[in-house]
Amino acid sequence: MPKYIAFLRAINVGGHTVKMDHLRALFEAVGFLNVETFIASGNVIFDSKSASAASLERKIEKHLLQSLGYEVATFIRSLRELREIAGYRPFPEADMEADSNTVYIGFLGTSPTKEAEQKLVSAATPVDDFHVCGTEVYWLCRTGFSESLFSGARLEKYLGMNTTLRNSNTIKRLAAKYL
Known about the structure:
The protein has about 180 residues and is of the alpha+beta class. It folds into two domains: about 5-80, SP0830-like domains (Alpha-Beta Plaits), CATH 3.30.70.1280; about 90-175, Alpha-Beta Plaits. It is about 35% helix and about 25% strand. The chain has seven helices and eight strands. The protein has helices at about 20-30, 55-70, 80-85, 95, 115-120, 150-160, 170-175; strands at about 5-10, 35, 45, 75-80, 100-105, 130-135, 135-140, 165. The chain has a four-stranded antiparallel β-sheet. The longest helix has 16 residues, at about 55-70. The relative contact order is 0.17. The model has no long low-confidence stretch (mean pLDDT about 95).
């Protein structure tokens, strides 16, 4: 049975607090098996017979809206996709490994339009750099997150679509857990 990772937007941020045991129970209630959470930021690992990420996203979003009372954008990736994302190197190695820099990965539901991608990439600054690969946005932040002019909301505005961000270290740790 395939294993998936759901990256949830609006979990434990902006006043929307959900305990991880409750979140696991919500996923189990819709029939998913071997449900786990990974840190308290809306990363849920589960098994499902479904082969359609889009169908899983819709099912989860509908159930979370009914259960929590607010929309939770959901982005599903398979283990294979997660490994590829964790191993992808969109920026020079020195930039990606510098202690003062952080790479964030934004998960998208679909690939952005070429116009949206170009708009985001052209917004790069000496502090913030961007790269789009398929349904992920890689954001190199050369300062503290709070010191950057960019945010998840600003990324969404440039792309014209929902996204949820994760630190690349979180993604690498999550991928390593299933190697």
